[in-house]
Design goal:
seven-stranded mixed β-sheet; alpha/beta; about 290 residues; Helicase, Ruva Protein, domain 3; binds S-adenosylmethionine; two-stranded antiparallel ribbon
Length: about 290
């Protein structure tokens, strides 16, 4: 049997039959807009040979759309109470596997290796719980998982920050980190009224296409990320002060490095474009 999981009446009936009450702390806002999941699935699955890793299937509304298009869908759900719900709502599909666990703790390298052997490429698609948006995205990127792309719904403000140009006012440390690993694009806006229960914020779907190599590569990647974190640590401070304090370097050394790159001593991190952040890291990195 196939359910219309974007119909709020159907979802309420299924949840009440399973005695399920929504958990705010797990970020459970379920999509009830019939247009959003097909659009997300169409962006995430480019060929019928694709595999998809979903994070947080909830009642399975996006999962069902992914199953219609992809060769295989593996979905990780933390809330064990949803497992019987999902076995009912996804019973019509043979190409789905639900894994009970925490996306931040599971061994994702091993999972991708084992579960998608017969898929041409694998993408991540999810309506991410707001409370772990950045840690999940950073984990997916930093572990250099063999993924083609990540198509995820996040809070609107997070989407703007993640997809901002490095060197503009909207950028933060996470912007620089994301753009190091991926090409980030905002795909479409999703109003808060598209969810049950209705959250206090709007959302947007973004796409991160993973780069095979970063556009600008520092000599020491770990030092570069420490520098980015320090530079953006206090947004009202100058990059010079943040970097000097965060990395334990003399201010004069940081000022001199900024000057050789043609940047003013009082520049803020958000004004430094990516190539200059990388050059700054190379200049300050102990040999
Ligand atoms: N995909 C569904 C939808 O669009 O309606 C549900 C999205 S809801 C925003 C987030 C889902 O992530 C919930 O089902 C929640 O239980 C699950 N979740 C929360 N924390 C998680 C974690 N650490 N690991 C895996 N799933 C998690």
């Amino acid at each position: 049997m196939q359910y219309d999981l974007s119909d709020i009446g159907t979802v309420r009936a299924i949840l009440s039959r399973h005695g399920f009450s929504v958990s705010k702390s797990l970020g459970q806002n379920f999509l009830i807009d019939p247009d959003v999941c097909p659009q997300m699935a169409a962006q995430a699955v480019e060929s019928p040979d694709d595999g998809v890793l979903e994070i947080g299937p909830g009642v399975g509304v996006l999962t069902a759309q992914l199953c219609r298009r992809a060769k295989k869908v593996v979905a990780i759900e933390l809330d064990r109470r949803l497992l019987p719900v999902l076995s009912e709502t996804l019973s019509a599909f043979r190409n789905v596997e639900i894994i009970s666990g925490d996306v931040l703790k599971l061994d994702l390298q091993a999972l991708l290796r084992e579960k998608f052997t017969d898929c041409k490429r694998v993408s991540v698609c999810a309506n991410l719980p707001y409370y772990i948006t950045s840690p999940v995205i950073m984990r997916l990127l930093e572990e250099r998982l063999p993924l083609a792309q990540i198509v995820v719904m996040v809070q609107k403000e997070a989407a703007e920050r993640l997809c901002a140009e490095v060197g503009t006012r909207e950028a933060g440390a996470v912007t620089a980190a994301v753009q190091y690993y991926a090409q980030a694009d905002e795909l479409f806006f999703v109003p808060r009224t598209s969810f049950f229960p209705t959250p206090k914020v709007d959302s947007a779907v973004i796409r991160l296409r993973l780069r095979s190599e970063p556009e600008c590569k520092p000599t020491d990647e770990a030092f570069f990320f420490r520098l980015v974190k320090a530079a953006f640590a206090q947004r009202r401070k100058t990059a010079q002060n943040g970097i000097a304090a965060g990395l334990g370097l003399p201010k004069e050394q940081v000022a001199a490095a900024l000057e050789t790159l043609g940047l003013p001593a009082d520049v803020r991190a958000e004004k430094i474009p990516m190539p200059q952040l990388v050059a700054l890291s190379d200049r300050l990195c102990p040999k």
